[in-house]
Amino acid sequence: MDFQKPLAKYLKPLNKDSLNQLEKLFNHNLKTISYFQRDLTKFKILLAVMRNFNEDKLQTIEDLIEDIPKSISSRAHKLNSITEATNLNYLIKETSNSDQRKKYLKPSKLLVDEFKKFLEEVISKKN
Question: Is the Cβ–Cβ distance between 121 and 28 less than 8 Å?
Fold first, then answer.
């Protein structure tokens, strides 16, 4: 097929190990990670929350929403994704002590534990 020829030069360097590593991104039994992989907005939220948690950084929900490009999803979808994840206890909303209007997101213990397992599986060199 003609449409495959332009991709051949990109796919040829991929060896079996590379493809196995890519496959590990989605072949797992981690419930919380699977939830966030359902769409790009949720995955971007996951990455932002985990990056902030890892860096011990507080980012308001409003700032997080602004950081996700409008071309990916609407503000309503971003808020609905955050609300759903908090209702499922995957994310925890915390209110600022100094300004009750500011809300922050932190990962639940379950999410932190599963994210660690996810990284170990994806980064591991084992097939």
Answer: yes
Q: What is the C-alpha R_g of the chain? A: 18
Look at residue 12 in the predicted model and tell me its pLDDT: 64
The pLDDT of residue 120 is 86
Q: What is the pLDDT of residue 22?
A: 72
Q: Which domains does the chain have, with CATH numbers?
A: 16-123 (1.10.10.10)
Spell out the SS3 assignment of the chain: CHHHHHHHHHHCCCCHHHHHHHHHCCCCCCHHHHHHCCCHHHHHHHHHHHHHHHCCCCCEHHHHHHHCCCCCCCHHHHHHHHHHHHHCCCEEEEECCCCCCCEEEEECHHHHHHHHHHHHHHHCCCC
Amino acid present at 54: N
Terminal Cα distance for the chain, rounded? 31
Q: Which pair of structure tokens corresponds to residue 65?
A: 């929403």
Mean pLDDT by 10 residues, the chain (127 residues): 56 68 78 94 96 94 94 96 97 93 95 93 64
